[in-house]
Amino acid sequence: MGHQVIIFDFSLIRGLWETRVKKSKERQRKEKERLEKSSLEKIKQEWNFILECRKKGIPQSKYLKNGFVDADEKILDTYGKTPQVQKRHALSDEANKEKDKFIFHLSGEKWTEFPDSLKEQIYLKEWHVYNTLIQTIPAYIALFQDLRVLELSKNQINHLPVEIGCLKNLKVLNVSFNNLKSVPPELGDCENLEKLDLSGNMEITELPFELSNLKQVTVVDVSANKFHSIPICVLRMSNLQWLDISSNNLKDLPEDIDRLEQLQTLLLQKNKLTYLPRALVNMPKLSLLVVSGDDLVEIPTAICESTTGLKFISLKDSPVETIVCEDTEEIIESERDREQFEKEFMKAYIEDLKERDSTPSYTTKVLLSLQL
């Protein structure tokens, strides 16, 4: 399919999206009610009951009477109390417990620091810590050599320790929506890292060149910060497929951006770009490019005439009214909330684009009146 240009007012898109979600939920509710009353649903329930009986090894004679299914839950309960089934359930529960013991979960504003007992659990493979008041990551994190996933979003973390570079097996690092202002060069030693999310920290202006060593990274999200240009280290991430650098202070793109040969998605909206380089046409795998069209005065014709199937989306973003508030922290928090909402919206919008069977090859600006 040829090049696609979709231009919308961002607030209108959001309104339309919310309306679409409401209508979809209402249709799903009505369809669910219809199915519950239909014979088809009864057949489905009986079939699922038969499958459950077979899984538990219940003889047909117990649930089939004169050719009809006796979907009595007591049959399952009675058989579930037999020693064989109880043993099977016990083994399953034990397996789940074995898996869970390698995952650490922590949330809630009552937490201002990591519990002391954590340092004894160096066998952990995943940390999931969110919505706490924790500000620092302990240096003993270097002991967690089996750590694969480090999810630390929506906390109060203000810096990453240099010891993070000791996590050679780390694959996912998410420190979005914290209070980071910089990233240590040692992060470049996490040679197996595949996903890096630094979005929503609001103050990061650059990344250390040492991150060029992250050759396995496929996803980088540095949106909602203060980058003036795409970091050089990012341009050297040869396997990068997704780059979100929206809501920053970009004024231009590097002329050698086409060195990102594996890049498929590039999100640039809410920056200060006035033109797009022709080099974007030389990126064979680029399938989605999102910008804000307010300041753009130059777009290469080759992008609009691309035959590679590139979707080019230009969002017309309405100015956001700034509410003067004596408490600066409240203003920052509201900005974070807005960025987070817009991030979730864009994710849903992009997923919707991917699911569409067909879209217009060219769409002009849509003028609509919509009361939000």
Structural class: alpha/beta
The main sheet orders its strands as 1-13-12-11-10-9-8-7-6-5-4
Tell me the number of helical segments per DSSP (H or I, 4 or more residues long): 8
CATH topology tier name of the largest domain? Leucine-rich repeat, LRR (right-handed beta-alpha superhelix)
Indicate the overall shape: globular
**What percent of residues are in strands?**
5-15%
- Given as residue ranges, the uncertain stretches (5+ residues, pLDDT < 50) are 1-8, 318-326, 357-372
Strand count, sense and barrel status of the largest sheet are: 11 strands, parallel
Total of domains: 2
Mean pLDDT across all amino acids? 81
Question: Rg to the nearest angstrom?
Answer: 26 Å
Secondary-structure arrangement, i.e. CATH architecture of the largest domain: Alpha-Beta Horseshoe
Helix/strand order, N-terminal first: EHHHEEHHEEEEEEHEEEHEH
Report how far apart the termini are: 34 Å
Q: Would you report the number of β strands?
A: 13
CATH superfamily of the largest domain: Ribonuclease Inhibitor
CATH class of the largest domain: Alpha Beta
